[in-house]
């Protein structure tokens, strides 16, 4: 290949590269466009989410104060019971034998007391006439008083034994429903160190409570009386209502996360909620109806003078240093900074208390577009030429 051909090829390549740069490589001018929104009125709320367990409002563990063998059970799971109703009975044989034994001791002790009383009266008369010594009289007095004390002691033992005998019958302490039965007939229960639980009763299962675990970062916003909604897996399409009744001060720590038990009261008139269900809880810490709102992105937007292209003009009103929030409003070709006072923020939209109105066009984002002309596209030799109509 001679030198002339090499030069021609090189020049051709340069021409091709120049054409490519002319049509494709040039930086196209950017035009500015805005994404705007008009403030809307509606409901807004600040919420806290948590999980909890559904429990009856008032539960009682029914146990026994004496040990023994379960002889009879007169109720079962889910049964409605009345206050004073007999629920179960322990075998009373041993307790009855103890009562009978102490009764025998009491009879013997009472007989001895009668004798000592008679003897004391006789010794007193003899002492008064000087027939016996003071020592003999004191001995009779002591024997009489000892017999009295013995009778009183045995009577107390009898009352205790009779009370233990009565404890073999387990009665309901209140009106309610049986949530759990922990024993069966023939089972031995021992009450040596603690009271064994025989039954768990709920006072009223038409009123339930959710024991929710609220994170320490959120508990400061929760107040008694706050509205609550929650769902359970059994009725995933139904939302239940409640309110915060109590915030317990005792913290709970798990995996270095501190939570506080928040009690939420709710109605269970339709009996759908069952003890032990897991609830997904939403606590409404702040709420407002008919509130003027804009997207949160409007408050995060920042516009510098160099970002705008004609015909738009930046207007920055003098803003007080104490103003912490501002938005940009598009009015014709003017982009105006407006200080605003905000209220509730739900992380999607924010309540505007003052600064903008319903008719204002609030900027939420700046968009840039590439300026191209159909003339340039038509003069590109690398694009097909449109067929002309005749």
TrEMBL record:
Residues 99-168 form the Multidrug resistance protein MdtA-like alpha-helical hairpin domain. It is found in: Cell envelope. Its main location: other. Keywords: Membrane, Transmembrane, Transmembrane helix, Transport. InterPro entries: Beta-barrel_RND_2, MdtA-like_BSH, MdtA-like_C, MdtA-like_HH, RND_pump_MFP. One of its GO terms (cellular component) is efflux pump complex. Residues 210-285 form the CusB-like beta-barrel domain. It holds the Pfam family BSH_RND. The keyword Transport applies. The chain crosses the membrane at residues 6-24. GO terms for molecular function: efflux transmembrane transporter activity. Residues 59-196 form the Multidrug resistance protein MdtA-like barrel-sandwich hybrid domain. Belongs to the membrane fusion protein (MFP) (TC 8.A.1) family. This is HlyD family secretion protein.
């Amino acid at each position: 290949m001679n030198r002339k051909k090499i030069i021609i090829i090189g020049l051709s390549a340069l021409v091709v590269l120049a054409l490519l740069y002319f049509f494709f490589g040039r930086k196209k001018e950017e035009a500015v466009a805005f994404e705007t929104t008009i403030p809307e009125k509606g409901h807004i709320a600040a919420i806290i989410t948590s999980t909890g367990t559904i429990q009856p409002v008032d539960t009682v563990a029914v146990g026994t104060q004496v040990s023994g063998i379960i002889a009879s059970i007169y109720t079962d799971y889910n049964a409605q019971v009345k206050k004073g109703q007999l629920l179960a009975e322990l075998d009373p044989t041993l307790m009855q034998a103890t009562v009978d034994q102490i009764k025998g001791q009491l009879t013997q002790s009472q007989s001895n007391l009668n004798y000592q009383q008679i003897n004391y009266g006789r010794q007193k008369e003899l002492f008064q006439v000087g027939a016996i010594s003071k020592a003999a009289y004191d001995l009779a007095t002591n024997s009489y008083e000892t017999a009295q004390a013995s009778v009183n002691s045995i009577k107390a033992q009898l009352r205790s034994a009779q009370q233990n005998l009565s404890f073999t019958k387990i009665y309901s302490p209140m009106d309610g429903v049986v949530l759990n039965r922990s024993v069966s007939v023939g089972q031995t229960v021992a009450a040596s160190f603690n009271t064994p639980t025989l039954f768990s009763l709920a006072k009223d299962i038409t009123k339930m409570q959710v024991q929710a675990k609220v994170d320490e970062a959120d508990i400061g916003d929760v107040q008694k009386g706050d509205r609550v909604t929650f769902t359970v897996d059994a009725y995933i399409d139904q939302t239940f209502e409640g309110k915060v009744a109590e915030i317990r001060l005792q913290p709970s720590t798990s995996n270095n996360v501190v939570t506080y038990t928040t009690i939420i009261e709710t109605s269970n008139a339709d009996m759908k909620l069952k003890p032990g269900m897991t609830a997904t809880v939403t606590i409404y810490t702040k709420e407002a109806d008919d509130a003027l709102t804009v997207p949160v992105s409007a408050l995060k937007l920042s516009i510098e003078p160099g970002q705008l292209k004609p015909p738009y003009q930046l207007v920055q009103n003098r803003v007080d240093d104490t103003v912490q929030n501002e938005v940009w409003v598009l009015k014709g070709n003017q982009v105006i900074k407006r200080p605003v006072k905000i209220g509730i923020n739900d992380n999607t939209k924010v309540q505007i208390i003052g600064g903008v109105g319903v008719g204002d066009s609030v900027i939420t984002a700046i968009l840039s577009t590439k300026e191209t002309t159909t003339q340039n596209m038509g003069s590109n030799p690398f694009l097909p030429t449109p067929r002309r109509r005749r």
